[in-house]
Amino acid sequence: MASSLTAPVNHFAEKTVSKSLYIVDDEREFLSSLALSLREFGYKPITFDHPKQLLDTVKPDEVGCVISDLRMPELGGVELIRRLSSRGSMLSVILLTAFADVETAVSAMKLGAVSVVEKPFHLQRLANEIEVAMQRSEDDQHRASKIAEAEYLLSQLSNEEAAVLDLATKGYPNREISRQLTISPRTVDRRRQSALRKLKADSVADFAVLRTRLDSK
Known about the structure:
By secondary structure, the protein is of the alpha/beta class. The protein contains 9 helices and 5 strands; from the N terminus they run βαβαβαβαβααααα. It has helices at 28-39, 51-57, 77-86, 102-111, 123-155, 159-169, 174-181, 185-199, 204-215, and strands at residues 19-24, 46-48, 63-69, 92-97, 115-118.
């Protein structure tokens, strides 16, 4: 008779990352031309002639790259970066500009733009920047996933179990942990083992790694 038991679902298992490429520019002729050129490089860009259309479309956990004109009516590239960031977006942004404005470029980079590319540009250079942006976005998503995993696993611990592991990561032996928490050494060991099972961890060092992930937020 087949077993009715099923393996637990790992909600944080590594997944194949699908990467999006968006282009935003209020000049429709340029927008169409750039999209066509990038398709020849193997990309499948989605185009918008207004940033608000992009903001209405993208999802917070989406991985990929946005190529946006720096100067557009109502909502420019720098403000677009701010709005994406405020929504927790993982998308990386490349800004295009026909005007060499060092101050604006520096401001955009500080906000998180991957690069500011001056028009006209070589398509190969833009393609290279897209690859950098895609990788950064994927790295950010991976980091966020690891932090979410750490938060979830640590939330499974009782306060008593967490207290034991906190002291254990500081190098205290069971006897000293027992003294500080006023519990028996056997209780210390029981709580330690229970905590490690919940964390799916082999050692206290794994607990320290999870703590470090949260501290890096």
